[in-house]
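Query form — protein Ornithine carbamoyltransferase

QUESTION: What is the three-dimensional structure of this chain?
INPUT:
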Amino acid sequence: MKQDLLTFANWTPEAMESLLKLAVEIKQAPASYSNVLKGKSIVALFEKPSLRTRVSFDIGINKLGGHMVYLDVQSGKLAGREDSVDTAANLSCWADAIVARVFSHSTLETYAEAANVPVINALCDKYHPCQGLADYLTMFERFGKTTGLTMTYIGDGNNVTHSLLIVGALLGCNQVVITPKGHEADASIVAHAKALAEKTGATIVESNELEAANGTDVIYTDTWLSMGDDTPLETIKATFMPYQVNEALMEASGASCVMHCQPAHRDLEITGSLIDSDKSLLMQQAENRMHGQNAILTQLLSA
Ligand code: CP
Ligand code: NVA
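ANSWER: The structure tokens for Ornithine carbamoyltransferase are given below.
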């Protein structure tokens, strides 16, 4: 029975913990995993731009002994030529897995249904699970644990927020989500994350007030405008500027580290000086994208 990775929402805390440990192991001893994907080909299909995800999958797959075929659906040449069901069924005739970055989560569900090989979510409108895994791997490396820590996400409640909530709940990490009014995380995903958190003892708090960050270990932020959102920057700046992650906020909250999935917008959601400071975990997060994804590929494809 093939296993997809669309959200982590149906995983157990034990399975999540063991995937995190596998990522640590692969990072520490890559040579032991260099044949995991020997003779295997993975198609990576992108409806949206990408730097980190595309390159880290390509190089990561190569390090595991496999081969990646990149499919550019953004150019328009492939978009709309056939039904998603047929795309996925055809791809699974040749590929051993499909990695897909799509606008709508429902496209991934269609792919997963139609393909008889694993489908991996490389970002959609609702989730970014590969990012979530890399981020908790980064926290684990920084603090030696994830359980009992507190991560505070500040900004727009989006796909990254949702995956941080789910993966964090499974790994016992307390979450505070601070957004402007009207930009909260999806209520049903927050409710699901709270149900998962009950199994690990983690807490999830939502607020519109920056004071809710006081006492946190880590502050995390992401773009105020996700890909596909064409709201003019000037329109949202007035709402979001008070939520900028900057040195004063780090000081007031007591957070020792700052995180961002990138691409980052210097001096908008985060100050450039904070990105460049010794509190920044941004490059470690980027590096860990590959190790986390290689753990996912190893788990789904070496069974
Ligand atoms: N963090 C992330 O997914 O970056 P890309 O959009 O560049 O892949
Ligand atoms: N929330 C952002 C994440 C980019 C990696 C977006 O969807 O554009």
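ADDITIONAL NOTE: Residues 131 and 289 are 6 Å apart (CA to CA).
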